[in-house]
Write a structure and sequence with these properties.
By secondary structure, the protein is of the alpha/beta class. It has eleven helices and twelve strands. It folds into two domains: about 120 residues, Rossmann fold; about 190 residues, Rossmann fold (3-Layer(aba) Sandwich). The protein binds nicotinamide-adenine-dinucleotide.
């Protein structure tokens, strides 16, 4: 089978080549995204795989249909770039990779939390600015096994996060609308208020939905423990960013580890000029008790390999009419 992989990143190449060799399929890798200008490149191919945030409009599905292509497989969890109705009308099946490595995101959250717990940013600031290598009472740290870690959302990533913190000896509590009995060895389910009130580290792992948007607002922060650390590896929109900045400035919260920000799409994943970066980012990056990473919690060799392989497997499965659990409804 001949597959065209759009928006190929350098780091994906070896995994696609490895898959092609193992399965006997042919994969051609292009760096451009799938658009109305590039769709003609798919002529002569059996299927396509994409990895992009830019919209895929109706005329693209129509053009693919005319080329005899029946599917688009995205190497991402997100499917917001598709017009699912237009795809269906043109007989195009969409697949995504919803789960590629929960551990990758969980480990990044724990990494942020440990950095903040031990005040590394604050020590660094004193050393860099003033050659101040002293230890002082305000930077004394807690040890992780004495902490309560609260999770909001205990699905794939929250569950993996619970397991890591439990292995480190922390008490883990979680709020989730749909408790999973299999996670009982690692944590205790509590209500939203209790998670806020009892957590030394509060870690967010719910999707961004109307019901979760800005769930960490002024009222929620007011209930949190003094000096608590907020970790957001999920979506920036879960947090009212200005309220978070105020809580960090006033010393109410001890720190924040953020892999996502509400306005990130204009600059994360790109190199931009300083003036293109929004003010909230500039304010947060100045704070020694804040860690920001540019939505890279997923970015591990295991996760990228899984994204590529699952997506390419799905191209073949859809074309052959085989079962795959990854069809987007
Ligand atoms: P999941 O669907 O397995 O888990 C989400 C959990 O949230 C579920 O258990 C669900 O019951 C719960 N939930 C949903 N709405 C809720 C609500 N209103 N109140 C309480 N609980 C609620 O998803 P996942 O794979 O664990 O991913 C979680 C989120 O992580 C994703 O939605 C995405 O936003 C984010 N994510 C981030 C990265 C990254 O690189 N930073 C990568 C992948 C996913």
């Amino acid at each position: 089978m001949k597959i065209l992989m759009y928006s190929t990143h350098e780091h994906e190449r070896t995994y696609a080549e490895e898959w092609a060799k193992e399965t006997g399929n042919q994969v051609t890798m292009e760096m451009v995204p799938l658009t109305k200008e590039t769709v003609a490149m798919a002529k002569g191919y059996d299927g396509v795989s994409v990895q992009q945030t830019s919209r895929i409009d109706e005329e693209v599905y129509r053009a693919l249909h005319e080329l005899g292509i029946k599917q688009i497989s995205t190497r991402t969890a997100g499917v917001d770039m598709f017009d699912l109705q237009a795809a269906a009308q043109n007989g195009i099946t969409i697949t995504n990779v919803a789960i590629y490595s929960p551990r990758a995101i969980a480990e990044m959250g724990v990494t942020h939390a440990m950095y903040l717990l031990r005040n590394i940013g604050r020590f660094n600031q004193r050393m860099e600015n003033d050659y101040d290598f002293r230890w002082s009472g305000d930077l004394i740290a807690k040890e992780i096994y004495t902490c309560t870690v609260g999770l909001i959302g205990a699905g794939h990533i929250g569950g993996a996060t619970a397991q890591i913190y439990r292995a480190l000896g922390a008490r883990v509590i979680a709020f989730d609308r749909h408790p999973d009995p299999e996670l009982a060895p690692y944590m205790e389910y509590v209500d939203f208020e209790t998670v806020l009130k009892e957590s030394d580290i509060l870690s967010l792992h719910v999707p961004l939905l109307p019901s979760t948007e800005k769930m960490i607002d002024a009222a929620a922060i007011a209930k949190m423990k003094d000096n608590a650390i907020l970790i957001n590896m999920a979506r920036g929109g879960l947090v009212d960013t200005q309220t978070l900045i105020d809580a960090l400035n006033s010393g109410r919260l001890g720190g924040a580890g953020l892999d996502t920000l509400a306005d990130e799409t204009t600059y994360f994943g790109k190199q931009v000029d300083a003036e293109e970066v929004p003010d909230d980012y500039h304010e947060l990056e100045e704070m020694p008790n804040v860690v920001i990473t540019p939505h890279v919690a997923f970015f591990t060799n295991v996760a990228v390999r899984n994204m590529v392989r699952i997506s390419l497997d799905d191209v073949v499965a859809v074309i052959k009419g085989q079962r795959t659990k990854n069809i987007v409804k």
